[in-house]
Amino acid sequence: MQTENRFFDDLAKVLNGAAGTLAGMGREAESTMRARAREWVGGLDLVSREEFDAVKAMAATARDEVEALRARLDALEGKGEPPVPNSYTVSPDAGGTTGATSDRLPGEPPVV
């Protein structure tokens, strides 16, 4: 009976040693994979959360400014202010057509 107990004792010691070795290998593999993942993510040129939040706030501010400018433009256009004249347009009192289709320069009197 003692031999059977000794056999099982030796077998238990071998299995415990193997389990310890496998656990060590697992920890080493995990640390290697973590290091490689950190290296890979570091090479992706990602932004930090603080940088992302700062740019998000800047975009929101820009959006608000655009909306304010759009409202201002709508208000200015709604007042009926005359549009800026085209540089190629001749006033009707000069007797003309557009300078793009005429031989005259804008504002030049008509040739009689």
Automatic annotation (TrEMBL):
This is BMFP domain-containing protein YqiC. InterPro entries: UbiK. It comes from Sphingomonas jatrophae. Residues 76-112 are annotated as: Disordered. It comes from the Bacteria.
